[in-house]
Amino acid sequence: MKYTQLGRTGLKVSRLVLGTMNFGPFTDEAGSHAVMDAALGAGINFFDTANVYGWGENKGRTEEIVGSWFGLGGGRREKTVLATKVYGSMHLGEGDPWPNEDRLSALNIRRAVEASLKRLNTDYIDLYQFHHVDRHTPWEEIWQAIDVLVQQGKILYAGSSNHAGWHIAQANETAARRGSLGLVSEQCLYNLVERRAEMEVIPAAESYGLGVIPWSPLSGGLLGGAIRKENDRGERRSGGGRAAEVLADPVRRAQVQAYEDLVAEHGLEPGEVGLAWLLTRPAVTGPIVGPRVAEQLESAVRAVELELSPELLAKLDEIFPGPGPSPEAFAW
Known about the structure:
By secondary structure, this protein is of the alpha/beta class. It has helices at 29-41, 61-70, 76-79, 106-120, 139-152, 165-178, 201-208, 226-233, 242-247, 250-265, 270-278, 297-305, 310-319, 328-331; strands at residues 3-5, 12-14, 17-19, 46-48, 81-86, 125-130, 155-161, 183-189, 211-215, 288-289. Helix 2 (61-70) crosses helix 4 (106-120), helix 4 (106-120) runs parallel beside helix 5 (139-152) and helix 6 (165-178) packs parallel to helix 7. The longest helix has 16 residues, at 250-265.
């Protein structure tokens, strides 16, 4: 495994991030523990979760599973850089949510941290991320709450998720006026198919020293050999799912086919190339991979060692062109 600094911090993290969203809904507790053990064994030290994972009436369940794994001991917590998130409503039961059960008010941040610490079976969170921008809470209030938690030793760093470039600028300019560290990471949708983050989010992250953590790095399986898997089954993909919807479009299907043909010519696996491409991008710390079973980690780990040639990178740009820099991309 390779490691890098998280943004402008001194924190060393693996170039793959273990996503835990499947833990609970799709992978039971024992299976989840096996995945985390395999990740740690492969050198992945950066784990990502969120307070709402588990979803519906099971919100918080994923954090509980991570916490039970920490409870097994063996240095699991000490070896793990733990990231979780706050924003979504944690209301359970009947009736409408009570006020202040969601978003980024100082009150909800305080309550949400305490609840996550309990579920995660730990006394501190390494990276506390804002799951979405809160348009109703001023950054001065958010940083006041975060500064208190840092002073109390309950969190070490703060990051954002699904924020625009100007949100990152606004957040860190406000933090600078307070003498606070500000955001050190941004978790955003970014992959070969979806490159709009390159217009403003990536440049903002570079400018302010944030590490970028791409989610959905294989575009919901689209870049993982979706057409080849269809052919292996001898039939078109049926049913729902983002990949199936995209492949129903002849233009996008031809694009994905060109991608699979290209990587096949180089003797490579599509999913590994999709991850390796992200690791060549400016400001990217590491993509989030979310295996349901431990065996699915092997391909992702191989991607870290994969060196993509300039020729291959150029061809990938031809198949999946980026939007270009801002403002040129939309101004003329």
